[in-house]
Design a protein that fits this description.
The protein has 14 helices and 23 strands. It has 425 residues and is an alpha/beta fold. Strand 1, helix 1 and strand 2 form a beta-alpha-beta unit.
Length: 425
């Protein structure tokens, strides 16, 4: 088998970084790394995590980032922030790595709304932009920062006085027509030959902090496809990218922005069977790619996921059977996932139980293999489980009195079933 492609996600703590990780984590072609300047959620997501890098605006960033690329022998980088994308696009020749969708001209245009609207000013799908508040012909209008993304810093202004005040307060403002209609995001993939391999439109529903928590996948209409093809023909892309459209007062689609990076809610395309980050890896390997979409998937819904950090080194996992590993005769998926994760981490697995029946038969009926466990302790004399728990261990049991006694006597972390999800990678 050929060597794996070493992929770095930077920065790695945001939603879109997590989506890249999830998209690539099981690929036999990829070894994935995450790096960040801030101490963020990335270190709970990436097994291979590097923190403490300087900010891209700090003098030492380039030297440290280049050293990281060399030390880890990184082949390709996914930049997850527009400013990082623009910065790295100018450095790829020096640092010798492939930046996904890192054409310098394209990233520069994408970073500024003014450059984007100027680039496409002749198109009928480009919004009307005003040089100053006095030029606005219909109110309300919209003011937004030139280098913002999504809805960050966007203000609806209703008259000349309000617009003038907002215009004066904002650094590098862009003043444009108000678009009251529906909004869609269009996820795209362009291969190394410049072919637009995938165009997938989706809604932005229940938006929180600029992130679509619910997204419905839409049939592709000719108008949206035409805009995608036009953008793709005008600028150089290679990999996943997206653009956002909103309808004007007459129901016509107008461009809000485009970006060269992966979007967090591109997960909607992956749920449909179209793994855009993985397609980028195959394209990097100079393989022709095409999309295989499941037409039955129509919507995704997302939520915040919580991870916990445990400051305790352990080598053994003790886990109870009844109402912990098995409930109502069926294996508990979260606990089973944690067991497999622990095996991969070379932990010792001990099943400790007061089960009234034959343990092997109960596990067999739940389709759980005895081979998962290094040891099975079947207590039949009423003795305390604390007698068996060793110092460098954690203890998982649904029964509070058992957990209480083990913590009191053994001074080790104890968890109910509901807490296990916090420690799954």
């Amino acid at each position: 088998m050929n060597k794996k492609v070493k992929v770095l996600v930077f920065p790695c703590g945001a939603e879109n970084a997590t989506e890249i990780y999830q998209a690539l984590r099981y690929s036999i072609h990829v070894e994935i790394f995450g790096a960040s300047s801030m101490d963020d959620h990335g270190r709970y997501t990436f097994e291979n995590y590097v923190g403490g890098l300087p900010n891209i605006k700090e003098p030492g960033f380039q030297a440290e980032f280049e050293a990281l690329i060399t030390r880890l022998k990184i082949d390709m980088v996914f930049a997850t922030h527009d400013s990082v994308m623009e910065y790295l696009s100018e450095k790829t020749q020096i640092m010798d790595f492939f930046l996904v969708n890192g054409a310098p001209e394209t990233t520069a245009v994408a970073r500024k709304k003014s450059a984007t609207y100027q680039m496409f000013a002749a198109r009928d799908w480009s919004p009307k932009v005003f040089p100053n508040p006095d030029a606005v012909d219909v109110w309300p209008a919209v003011i937004k920062p030139d280098c913002g993304q999504g809805g960050q810093g966007v203000q609806v202004v209703h008259d000349l006085a309000e617009a003038s005040m907002a215009f004066a307060k904002m650094a590098s403002p862009v003043l444009m027509e108000y678009l009251p209609g529906d909004e869609v995001t269009v996820d795209c993939f362009t291969d190394r030959k410049g072919r637009l391999v995938w165009i997938g439109a989706r809604t932005r529903e229940r938006v929180r902090a600029g992130i679509s928590m619910r997204s419905s996948l839409l049939p592709l209409d000719a108008r949206i496809e035409g805009i995608a093809q036009d953008i793709n023909a005008t600028l150089k892309f290679r990999g996943p990218w997206f653009f956002q459209l909103k309808q004007d007062r007459g129901g016509c689609w107008k461009l809000l922005e485009f970006s060269c990076r992966v979007a967090g809610t591109m997960v909607a395309q992956r749920a449909k069977g179209v793994n855009l980050p993985l397609m980028a890896v195959h394209d990097y390997l100079e393989r022709d790619v095409k999309a295989l979409a499941n037409r039955w998937v129509e919507m995704v819904d997302r939520r915040i996921v919580t991870k916990a950090e445990m400051e305790f080194r352990y080598e053994t996992v003790f886990v109870d059977l009844d109402e912990t590993l098995v409930i109502d005769g069926f294996a508990v998926p979260t606990v089973l996932a944690f067991i497999y994760q622990s095996i991969a981490a070379r932990k010792k697995l001990v099943l400790i139980t007061r089960h009234a029946k034959n343990v092997a038969e109960t596990l067999s009926r739940a389709r759980i293999s005895l081979n998962l466990f290094d040891e099975i302790i079947h207590i039949t004399d009423g003795s305390s489980k604390a007698l068996y728990v060793v110092p460098d261990a954690i203890f998982i049991d649904n029964h509070f009195p058992e957990r209480y006694e083990v913590m009191e006597k053994c001074n080790v972390p104890v968890f109910d079933v509901d807490a296990i999800e916090f420690f799954l990678r």
